[in-house]
């Protein structure tokens, strides 16, 4: 019986799926099975996956029903003690599973282990940004405040027994179905985190996260359900969650070049959680909105691209410096 079941939902994913699967094969922890769930692809996914000789890889085909159903199909078919979710376009660093399994083995009360995440573009080039998670112990309060826990679906390693307790992914949620799952898990189990960037999350233009209103409605459904029967002293966290999700959606609207919608979400963020006005994220966003209004979207995009290039160059330079440093002088923090 495999120790870890890696579940990869795939829908017309041949542009990235071979590279994603190769990152699984390169894991230093070899005791796994891979379940590729083809969600009604019309490209060569089925033909390609059927020819894989490695017996650890299994192909399961279904009609197109969406990523939540595909993940549920994989979880139901999985034989491993631990479940690792992996999107078909993301990349794992070689030690990801090894370090997560070790943390779960050493902490029986932990149900989910997260990692840090590097954002990359479509060509797998780092944007210079690392998303840091502090999902330790009681992560529920962080999740309902829309703080960063499980940056993407490809980071967590979860005990299979946890799904038997909280159920599977909700296929009726068109957005944020992963957040709904993490909140349910956090209501019953402690979380842990490997504080290293072990996942490369590929960003795409035109992703479903551009539907800001749909995401807000999904968040409202999830958050109201989460607060149905909580203690009175926890209720203020709900407004903080609405504040943070509106701040996030304002950034999404900026990326969509929808200035009016961005301003609307920005105002709603402060209306729900006035203390956000003192946060660095709000200050940065206010500067971005000012630049967008004054310079226009094209000039703003050029400025943002320049900043991202400088950030990426700084990250690459720091990485080279760290590689030249003696191992005894290198720490996780300095390596970021």
UniProtKB/TrEMBL annotation:
Residues 319-336 have a biased composition (Polar residues). Residues 317-336 are annotated as: Disordered. GO terms for molecular function: glycosyltransferase activity. It comes from Plectonema radiosum NIES-515. Its EC number is 2.4.-.-. Keywords: Glycosyltransferase, Transferase. Residues 5-166 form the Glycosyltransferase 2-like domain. This is Glycosyltransferase.
